[in-house]
User: Which sequence fits this backbone?
């Protein structure tokens, strides 16, 4: 990527939201905050999601790059470019797995951006963008815009192996990072309540 002399004095951040309104809106709020601080913003999305992002950031000086939505994802209608268009949320995991096929077009578009990218902030479900960022030597931050508190507690329980401490789902355990908080496995919704976390939700 070639640096543009007009943008040398500014940071340039690429934002890539997951194709779901609940994930996109918080990242667009972050975009507004960054724009207020003079940061150049480029947002990656798909053609069907472009109008929502454009309207949400109406009047803002942002670049929006459309990437083609993958075709022939098993079970996913071609017009379903966001989770609210899925005929059933049972297709959520196939949807997430399918959008990783956007990686080649994302990398091609990233390579063609003229101003140097300071970092990439992408949704946690777009985990494959880490490999793309590493390929170009760009720092990547994972963005989770929903349920910060509950996700932090769940992460603490998972990484410290607390979910497998007791046989009973009702026996409390103390969080390592939050010793004033006690939880039980019954406090977690599936699939976060499993004693031995496995499966596609954990890969994501």
Assistant:
């Amino acid at each position: 990527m070639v640096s543009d002399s007009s943008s040398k004095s500014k940071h340039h951040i690429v934002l890539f939201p997951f194709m779901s309104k609940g994930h996109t809106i918080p990242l667009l709020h972050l975009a507004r905050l960054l724009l207020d601080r003079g940061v150049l913003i480029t947002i990656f999305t798909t053609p069907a999601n472009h109008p929502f992002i454009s309207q949400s950031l109406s009047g803002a000086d942002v670049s929006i790059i459309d990437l083609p939505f993958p075709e022939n994802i098993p079970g996913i209608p071609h017009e379903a470019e966001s989770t609210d268009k899925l005929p059933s949320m049972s297709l959520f995991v196939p949807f997430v797995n399918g959008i990783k096929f956007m990686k080649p077009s994302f990398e091609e578009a990233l390579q063609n951006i003229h101003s140097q990218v300071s970092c990439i902030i992408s949704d946690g479900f777009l985990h494959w963008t880490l490999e793309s960022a590493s390929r170009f030597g760009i720092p990547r931050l994972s963005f989770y815009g929903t349920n910060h508190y509950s996700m932090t507690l769940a992460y603490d329980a998972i990484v410290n192996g607390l979910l497998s401490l007791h046989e009973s789902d009702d026996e409390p355990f103390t969080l390592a990072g939050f010793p004033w908080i006690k939880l039980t496995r019954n406090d977690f919704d599936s699939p976060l309540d499993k004693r031995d976390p496995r499966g596609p939700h954990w890969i994501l």
Remarks:
- Strands lie at 12-16, 40-45, 63-66, 119-123, 140-143, 173-174, 182-183.
- Residues 1-9 have pLDDT under 50 and may be disordered.
- Residues 149-203 form one domain.
- The first strand starts at residue 12 and ends at 16.
